Predict the 3D structure of the following.
Amino acid sequence: MSVITENVLLAKRTIAEAAAEAGRDASEVRLLAATKMNGPEAIREAVAAGVDICAENRVQEFLEKNAMNAYSGCDVHFIGHLQRNKVKYLVGAVSLIHSVDSESLLSEIDRRAAALGIVQDVLLEVNIGGEASKSGAAPEDLPELLGRAGEFSHVRVTGLMTIPPAETKPGENRNYFRRMHDLFVDIRRKKYNNVLMNELSMGMSSDYADAVRCGATIVRLGTALFGARNYDKAGGAPDGTLR
Ligand SMILES: *Cc1c(COP(=O)(O)O)cnc(C)c1O
């Protein structure tokens, strides 16, 4: 069995165990492979081993690999920071965009989706750690953004996504995950027009078991499936920051 296959199976087992501990059904949690800097062969292996979703965080990388049919047979999402001028490459091409954090992005996605005659599902990204370096809406700005979502008939907000601060010790992010789950439940109760709260995208390689215990419906794993990324080789982000 290849290393990637073993890693996928281990991640699924970890998700199932964490879900069981929290009294949840493992089928409520989807495993997303964050495939950045991995080629079509590695991606196809992960898909064959049973990941539920593939996702890129850079538009250019998505377009290149999509043209090579790297995601064949798998649901594809976009998880990276998104600029307005790149929206046109994603709408209708991915089933879920995780990283919407402004009305300007909502309106551009709406415009492009309307032109295609479709409704694009998106998540609102929340900067739960309040870090200046991270994108995402501040929790206190969510009500306004959620209110605006009702004006865009070709966009549907289906949940929330977050990238909490990097952990310095295991378990540190549980508080952020709990706060995200509280927001998720609160928003669902308020029943905003054109907003569903079905998806809570949180948890990465180092903290996904905690995210599942706290209610994640999608966990996003890169390193845990594919091994460490070689940023030096690719010429960027040597400090390990997300690209
Ligand atoms: C790369 C990436 C991940 C996965 O990170 P790992 O720590 O390698 O699991 C998750 N979410 C986003 C947005 C990413 O860019």
User: Anything to note?
Assistant: Strands lie at 30-34, 53-56, 75-78, 96-100, 120-126, 155-162, 195-201, 218-221. The chain has a mean pLDDT of 94. Residues 34, 36, 57, 79-80, 163, 204-205, 220-224, 242 surround pyridoxal-5'-phosphate (CB under 6 Å). The longest helix spans residues 3-21.
